[in-house]
Structures are given as structure tokens and as C-alpha cells.
């Protein structure tokens, strides 16, 4: 049986177009009868995230008219001198960011439910992905963005035919405006933060790494704002562990920009939930989240895996972007922040580390 379950109070709900949070205000997780994961069955599916269709919450082939070949991104050794350090080039996607993993699954569900219009809010990349897949599904789409969002990302959203609503304010102000519109119009909230179907898509990041390496890595270095990739990776490796395909969970090292690091601060103080902070300004707009709604889950995932948080300063982010470019990878600023975190991480000998390249540099300002 497929249903939503509140992570705070345990209430359960039917999957409907209008439901996106619990009556208590808590975040919703997804419960369904999960099939046993059998890697031997993966080759029968297309070379995309839907290679893992048997581990996704769809009984039929609804995804076949939605997919644009997202996923199955390269895993590449970063430097010959460090053969255990890999980058996963997750900007090799239809809209040039890893968010296509989640959007493909979320919009497949929206189409299955009969949505005629969706609303989403974003710092840029998720909005672009939702707009693209909404167009693919022939579903109307409003994307709420900050008025300072990178013009290149705004142009991408516009190219897919979405209606853009730009607002002056914090990332939280943008989300509040979108949520009010969702309630006023009674439409589907295609949120990469609130809707758990998005994480069903991002968990395929873990499946691909497992398939490419033949095992789980020791460590994942992941940038975190709202935690869409971090939580997806955690869920994916947790499912592999529960199916006896790996022996331990990889350690998750989460990276935040020092100028907006509420979850890192909570981790350092031993808190279970992050308190909102003031974003004092960071170039890494993709992780500039002052009040992350799923902070409790993020903290739990990092702690369970024996991980930690690393905060990076703005000069470190800029320098890391230059270094990545010199290595041949032109990445978005948020990805550069993650690489800056890796440069501060004390790696052990023979430790296998995976660094995601989340967005292409051409998307940044």
C-alpha cells in the first residue's frame, strides 16, 4: 500500500494531488511495498534512472513517456595520483543538474495523479527541472524564483514554457509565496523539498555508484542546503544495505557555505533540528537555505553514518571553482563549494571518496 506518513507525529495520508504536508505541519515520508532489489534485473530496463524501476514506487510503465534519459552519469577518477577519489558528473543531465533525477520521478507521479498544473519554488536548478518535465508531461507550471536568481537559470525555466514568478526576499519568502498559491489554487505542489517522490528519484544516485564501483564507497562528500541529494543518497544506500547488497553505509560528509550554515551549526552543537539563521550572502545559491525544512532527517543521516559537516568560506569556494576548471570540469558555484569542502577533508589512505558534480558551470552567474 502506498501512503504518506508524517515524520513527526506518524499520521498517514492517501496520496492525493493536494496533500503535501501533515496536518501538524510535519514533513511527509513515503511508505510503499518495496520489492527486493535484484541487480540481475537491471539490464532489462533503459539506460537511465529507470534502470532501477523495480525499486521505484510505480507498478506500471508510466515513466516511459516522461523520461528524457536522465541518470547513468559517469564516475571518473579525479586525479591519477589519487585513484580512490572519484567525481560523479551529475550535471550530464537533460537540464544540466542532478535535480533531473528527482523531477523525472516527481512529475511522473503528478501525471499519474492527473495534475493539470503544478507549482514549485526553487533557487534555480529544481525549478528548471520541474519546468522541463512539466513540459514533457504537457502539464501547466508556475515556478517561483528569487528576483536575484541567475539569469541563465531564469532563461532555462522560461524556455520550457513555465510561468515565472520572481519575488524579492529570502529563499523562505519564495517558498511561502509558492505554498500560498498552491493552497489558493488547489494545485499540485511539485516541491523538491516537501514531496518525498523527489527523493525516490535522487536515491538512484546511490544505485548507480553501487553498480559502477561494484560496492559501496567509504565516503560521500555532498553539498547540503535542503538535502535533496544527501537524503536521496542515504535512502538509496540504506535500501542496498537492507537488501544485503552492501555491508555498511558510506560515511556522509556534508558541506555548507559558512555564510549560511544552519545544519552545520546544529551538528556542532548536538541539536536534533537546525534553527533558522540569517543568510549573510554566499555565491553558492543552491545551498543558501537559512531554514531547511528537513534538517532533522539530514542530521540523523549524517550522524548514523558516522559523518560530519564542513563549512567553507567564500574565497575557498572561488578558488575551488578555479581548480576544478583547471582539471577540466567547469562547475556551478555550489559544486565548487562542495569541492572546497573536500579539500578541507582529511582523507585516509585508500579511502574511496565520491564527489558529485551537481550542476554545470554554464548555469551560474
Distance between the termini: 45 Å
Rounded mean pLDDT is 96
Q: Roughly how much helix do the residues carry, as a percent range?
A: 25-40%
Question: Which residue ranges are poorly predicted, with pLDDT under 50 across at least 5 consecutive positions?
Answer: none
The counted number of beta strands is: 13
- Side by side, the strands of the main sheet go 4-5-13-10-11-12
Number of helices: 11
Q: Give the overall form.
A: globular
InterPro entries: Ser/Thr_Dehydratase, Ser/Thr_deHydtase_PyrdxlP-BS, TrpB-like_PALP, TrpB-like_PALP_sf
GO molecular function: L-serine ammonia-lyase activity; pyridoxal phosphate binding; threonine deaminase activity
Protein name: Threonine deaminase
Organism: Salinicoccus halodurans
Structural summary, described in words:
- The chain is an alpha/beta fold and 365 residues long.
- The chain folds into three domains: 1-33; 75-96 and 197-363, 3-Layer(aba) Sandwich (Rossmann fold); 99-189, Rossmann fold.
- 35% of the residues lie in helices and 17% in strands.
- It contains eleven helices and 13 strands.
- β1 and β2 (12-13) form a beta hairpin.
Keywords:
4-stranded parallel β-sheet; 11 helices; 6-stranded mixed β-sheet; Rossmann fold; 365 residues; 13 strands; alpha/beta
Provide a concise account of the structure shown.
Residues 66-359 form the Tryptophan synthase beta chain-like PALP domain. The chain is an alpha/beta fold.
Amino acid at each position: 500500500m502506498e501512503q504518506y506518513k508524517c515524520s513527526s507525529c506518524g499520521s498517514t495520508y492517501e496520496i492525493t494531488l493536494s496533500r503535501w504536508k501533515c496536518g501538524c505541519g510535519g514533513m511527509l515520508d513515503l511508505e510503499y511495498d518495496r520489492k527486493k532489489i535484484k541487480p540481475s534485473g537491471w539490464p532489462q530496463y533503459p539506460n537511465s534512472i529507470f534502470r532501477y524501476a523495480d525499486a521505484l514506487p510505480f507498478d506500471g510503465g508510466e515513466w516511459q513517456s516522461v523520461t528524457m534519459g536522465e541518470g547513468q552519469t559517469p564516475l571518473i577518477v579525479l586525479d591519477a595520483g589519487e585513484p580512490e577519489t572519484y567525481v560523479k558528473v551529475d550535471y550530464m543531465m537533460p537540464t544540466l543538474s542532478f535535480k533531473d533525477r528527482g523531477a523525472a520521478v516527481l512529475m511522473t507521479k503528478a501525471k499519474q495523479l492527473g495534475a493539470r498544473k503544478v507549482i514549485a519554488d526553487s533557487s534555480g536548478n529544481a525549478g528548471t527541472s520541474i519546468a522541463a518535465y512539466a513540459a514533457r508531461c504537457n502539464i501547466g507550471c508556475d515556478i517561483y524564483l528569487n528576483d536575484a536568481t541567475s539569469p541563465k537559470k531564469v532563461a532555462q525555466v522560461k524556455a520550457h514554457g513555465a510561468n515565472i514568478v520572481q519575488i524579492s526576499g529570502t529563499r523562505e519568502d519564495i517558498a511561502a509565496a509558492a505554498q500560498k498559491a498552491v493552497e489558493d489554487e488547489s494545485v499540485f505542489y511539485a516541491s523538491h523539498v516537501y514531496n518525498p517522490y523527489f527523493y525516490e528519484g535522487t536515491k538512484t544516485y546511490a544505485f548507480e555508484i553501487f553498480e559502477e564501483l561494484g560496492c559501496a564507497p567509504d565516503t560521500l562528500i555532498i553539498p547540503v542546503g535542503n538535502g535533496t541529494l544527501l537524503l536521496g543518497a542515504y535512502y538509496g544506500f540504506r535500501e542496498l544495505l537492507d537488501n544485503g547488497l552492501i555491508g555498511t553505509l558510506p560515511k556522509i560528509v556534508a558541506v555548507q557555505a559558512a555564510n549560511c550554515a544552519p545544519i552545520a551549526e546544529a551538528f556542532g552543537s548536538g541539536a536534533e533540528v537546525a534553527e533558522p539563521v540569517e543568510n549573510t550572502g554566499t555565491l553558492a545559491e543552491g545551498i543558501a537555505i537559512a531554514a531547511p525544512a528537513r534538517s532533522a532527517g539530514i542530521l540523523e543521516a549524517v550522524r548514523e553514518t558516522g559523518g560530519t559537516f564542513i563549512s567553507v568560506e567564500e574565497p575557498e569556494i572561488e578558488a575551488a571553482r578555479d581548480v576544478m576548471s583547471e582539471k577540466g570540469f567547469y562547475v556551478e558555484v555550489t559544486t565548487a563549494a562542495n569541492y572546497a569542502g573536500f579539500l578541507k577533508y582529511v582523507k585516509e589512505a585508500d579511502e574511496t571518496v565520491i564527489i558529485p558534480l551537481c550542476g554545470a558551470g554554464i548555469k551560474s552567474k
